[in-house]
Amino acid sequence: MDFKTERTKIWKLLLRRIRDKYRLVLLNEDTLEERISFSLSRLNVFVAIGLLSIILVFITTYIIAFTPLKEYIPGYTDVTLQRRIYELQLRSDSVAFAMRTQQRYLEDLKKVLGGDLPNERKMAPADTAQNRSYNKIKDSRSPEDSILRTEYDNANKYNLFKSDKSLGKGSTMRNLTFFSPIKGIVTSGFDPLRKHFGVDVVAARDEGIKSVQDGTVIFSGWTVETGYVIAIQHPGNVISIYKHNSVLLKKEGNTVQAGETVAIIGETGELSTGPHLHLELWINGIPVNPKDYIVF
């Protein structure tokens, strides 16, 4: 009984000391004038420290969970990091593929403008007639079939509007209608053996050069040998190139219509000896004779 009584007295004494109030006074050292005073108890101090600790823990947790500062914590890993790295890798691969494709396109365009063709390409015009021979084919054709084939070949031997495989599927000579770029005299013809993949047309000075078909300008610039050059992409995988101009009236990316003026005749470039137009036509990457399609 005495032990419990003593224990109760001790708890009452502790509670009284915790609740006892103390005054915190800030005095002026020189005049001993009271500046600030606080009435505090041990209990109030404990409660204030506890609340401040809870607030600090809450603020720290919020910063770690919802701000970019969490990435600076050693050992922390963002759950979306792998997905973002994968997306960036896909984008970089797509950009690299597009750049390689564009580079190959520019290299092919430079070769076309410079008249440099790979050796394995055929230098004959795309519309050159090719005689088919069936002598080497061994099969069991009937005499009637042979007679029918011969009659068909003879009937279409001189057909100017038959399909031309070099122009693509479904294309015919009838589908290709070209506008005359300039009226003049052809002084140098198409000669692929000496790498002259077009015709030279002499006309009056300051004459306008017109697009042969509707299309989009894919090159408009300067080369040392051919001066101011403009190249136009037309439907059916057809490209027309106009060299030695004095002025270019269209820029890359411009769309033009057949008969629209795209340049002014000139004599720019090292290979020019006077005002003239050097015109080239390319179909499916093969040069063709412009005189077979255009009346100058």
Assembly type of the shown chains?
Answer: single chain
CATH class of one domain equals Mainly Beta
Query: Quick one: overall form?
Result: elongated
CATH architecture of one domain: Distorted Sandwich
Largest sheet features:
10 strands, antiparallel
User: Helix and strand succession?
Assistant: HEEHHHEEEEEEEEEE
Considering the protein shown, what is the CATH homologous superfamily of one domain?
Answer: Glucose Permease (Domain IIA)
Q: How many DSSP H or I helices? A: 4
Notes on the protein architecture:
The protein is an alpha+beta fold and 296 residues long. Among the domains are: 2-68, no CATH class; 173-292, Glucose Permease (Domain IIA) (Distorted Sandwich), CATH 2.70.70.10. 30% of the residues lie in helices and 24% in strands. The protein contains four helices and twelve strands; from the N terminus they run αββαααββββββββββ. It has helices at residues 2-19, 42-66, 81-114, 143-155, and strands spanning 21-27, 34-41, 185-188, 198-202, 208-210, 215-223, 227-234, 238-248, 255-256, 261-265, 277-283, 286-288. Strands 3, 4, 5, 6, 7, 8, 9, 10, 11 and 12 form a ten-stranded antiparallel β-sheet that branches. A two-stranded antiparallel sheet has the order 1-2. A hairpin with a 3-residue loop joins strand 6 (215-223) and strand 7 (227-234). It is elongated.
